[in-house]
Write a structure and sequence with these properties.
Layout: H1 7-30, H2 32-49, H3 53-68
């Protein structure tokens, strides 16, 4: 007998499909910059759902920028 997926599983699958389609559209339209924009959107959505994650995201960005700051003439 086939098990019916739970509501949360269906939502998770729909959300994953939505983000995959969004990333594909962004990449097609803008290349790597579009992909980065899609990830930014996803990160903001996750943080909006759990505000405690903003600090973690900020620390991650601080670390990333400190590694790359000045290396590309920005």
């Amino acid at each position: 007998m086939q098990q019916v997926p739970s509501t949360s599983e269906v939502r998770r699958e729909r959300r994953a499909a939505h983000w995959a389609a969004r990333q594909a559209r962004q990449v097609q339209a803008r290349g790597d910059a579009g992909l980065a924009d899609a990830w930014w959107d996803r990160a903001r959505a996750i943080c909006k759902a759990n505000p405690e994650l903003w600090n973690d995201l900020a620390l991650t960005l601080e670390n990333w920028t400190s590694r790359h700051d000045g290396s590309h003439g920005a």
